[in-house]
Amino acid sequence: PKPEQVPTLSTEKHNRSQSWGLMQVMGETARWCAKLTDPYLTVMLDPDRGVEAGCKVLSFYLHRQKGNYQEALSCYNAGRVCTQGLIYAAEIYSLLDSKAHLKYLK
After folding, report:
1. Buried b (16+ CB within 10 A) or exposed e, 25-51
2. pLDDT tier at 51, thresholds 50, 70, 90
3. What pTM did the predictor assign?
């Protein structure tokens, strides 16, 4: 990058607090979990890069939660502290179980 394009600590801090790409991966999560080393988090807007990073994050949580999909999705939704997202994950699972989501596919 050109010298005037080098990210500053201020822009990096701001960008890490934003979600990026199709899978809405938080910038901080992209850095620590998906090992994103690009100088700009805007690379997450590329569908291939964003989905790849999201899959790495989801895989990390699935492994950490010993294969429990509900807990892994909860972590993906709520961050490193999984308990906050369990209610949301339970709601999504109940929609999928009830097939209520099918009305949105028409």
Report:
1. bbbbbbbebbebeeeebebbeeeebbe
2. very high
3. 0.66
